[in-house]
Amino acid sequence: MYIDPHVHMVSRTTDDYQRMALAGCVAITEPAFWAGYDRSCAQGFVDYFGQLTDTEPKRAAQFGIQHHTWLCINPKESEDIGLAREVLAEIPKFLSRPNVLGIGEIGLNKNSRNELVVLEEHIALAKSRGLLILVHTPHLEDKMKGTRIIMDAIQAHGVDPGKVLIDHVEEHTVRMVLDRGFWAGMTLYPDTKCTPQRATDIFEMHGTDRLWINSAADWGVSDPLAVPKCREEMRKRGHLEQIIRKVSFDNPKTFLSQSANFRI
Amino acid sequence: MSIPLTSKQVVDRYFLEHRAKALDIAAFLDRFDRAAEAEGVATSSTTSDVRVRALVAAVDLLRDGRPQRACRMLELWSDRSVDPIAAAHTKGAIGAVPLNEPGN
User: A172, A192, A241: best mutation site toward chain B, by most B Cβ within 10 Å?
Assistant: First the structure.
């Protein structure tokens, strides 16, 4: 039994829901993200938020998987502040939907000034509503710098780091995230981010408190079964079942249960 | 939480996988050099391509005998400036930065 706390099911087939259920997935959370193209207007996001809060929960329920979501305009589309503010104005209309956990995945992409402005407006919205936050950290060479800027911005707003998950950490960012009191997520990707082997190494070096794994499976090169594959890597190394359960079920459950909308 | 494997078990379990990955790096550099020689441009030892330079520098890092190689390799490939950039003109990342530049 496991939770995949970051997966973009709008980009996956129904067969993937079926395979995840067979592998033991009982709950997922799906952050709003970039569709691979820029949407032309705020109405495109309204339609997407409807998909995340209505269509996907029904699709997941067919396989006994509880579906939850996070809403935002993602950092890749945040350079246009005018559009971002139009989308931000739409988000409150969806926050009362029963599967919404909070604001995400917000963060930075290229670490630009406009991205930071939009990030801070999302943080303010989350804080004003007492919502959880799921953070996307930048890719590759931009990750280390962006992770620092994001954490500074969140703490400058006085948000409790215990209500924030900083995602896509790797060896060079995991320690700084945990040391500042945030939760951290490791994304399991074949080519970028972490492999199951490296994620297991990170658990061995940094412990299992406030740390989880996710597939972040989407429309790119990714694997919706990455979490069970990492569980298997840990099992093959001889780690205890209770440790494997902690990082793939108990930790996500503990963090996500801070939202009354999380169901398992 | 420590690693439950012995050092011999680590080698027994992972050697062939990582032997193949080391060969892939060698073959990539050979491939790059063959293409560069055919074009008459700089090969991997003198190229200005930041990605190839970053990879070669990382290979040097592997051999320094110090711990935290994965962390240090990611730091080597990271932008170490601190201020937000004026504007994002692209969405993508390339995986490396110019070495030995101010801020890096």
Answer: A172
Helix residue ranges per DSSP H, B1-104: 7-39, 50-62, 69-76
Q: How far apart are CA B89 and CA B86, in angstroms?
A: 9
| pTM of the predicted structure, to 2 decimals | 0.96
As a whole number, mean pLDDT of residues A245-256 equals 98
Residue ranges and CATH numbers for the domains of chain A are 2-256 (3.20.20.140)
What digits encode the pLDDT tens for the residues B39-84? 999 999 999 999 999 999 999 999 999 999 999 999 999 999 999 9
Please check whether residue A140 touches B, CB under 8 A.
yes
Q: What was the ipTM of the complex prediction?
A: 0.94
Q: Is the pLDDT of residue A45 over 60?
A: yes
CB-nearest to B1 from A140, A143, A207 is A207
- Which residue is associated with the tokens 């990707």? A189
